[in-house]
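Schema walk-through. Below, the input block comes first and the output block second. Nothing else is stored per chain. Lengths vary across the set, and this one has 219 residues.
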Amino acid sequence: MPNADCTRNCWIAGGLTGLLVLIFTSVIGPLRWFEGLVLGLVAFGIMGAFLVWLICRGRPAEDAADWHPAHHDTTPAEDMQLQPRGIQSQAAEGFLGAAQSAPTPRVAPSGDAQPVPPASPTDSGRNDIYGGSGDAGQADDLKQIKGVGPKLEELLHDNGVTRFDQIAGWGDAEIDHFADLIGRMGGRIRSDDWVAQARALARGEDTEFSKRVEEGSVY
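--- output ---
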């Protein structure tokens, strides 16, 4: 659980312990009320501090701006094995990159078979498979998605993700792939619901977080 909730719950448990000590020592037991109160406060402090130390001492919450990408050890061939089959396979190919092999020359439609030079990378953007309305070179400000800081935006750009409509079309396969690339903060894709945010932003709508980014109050 988040640190703030965990700490609050631990102190509530400590308070209940102190109350029980007060009841058993002064209400039921032989001690006077102020003596029981002192023992109850001592029990509250000791139990609350102990529970906080025992349960809530994990890693503090980390902001997306402080994130650093995890080292990715897989090869391009291993990445291709993550490609799903079926409707989303083309989208996955856009994320994972084409197979590392020599391009197959195209053949002229008539006459002697003459090799035609492969299409230049500028002929078709890497992410045209998403069918976005904008030009493939027009990048959106992905930092308007809550959970995407400057470093995460750079990682997404390096992997061909530059527009809201691309993230809006992610399925489980793409989410799992990018969660693996991101590392320990990959769970924020689902916890912050990047896909729902991206769908709203792709429709031209503003979110509360995107307004703060545009105002310059976040980064």
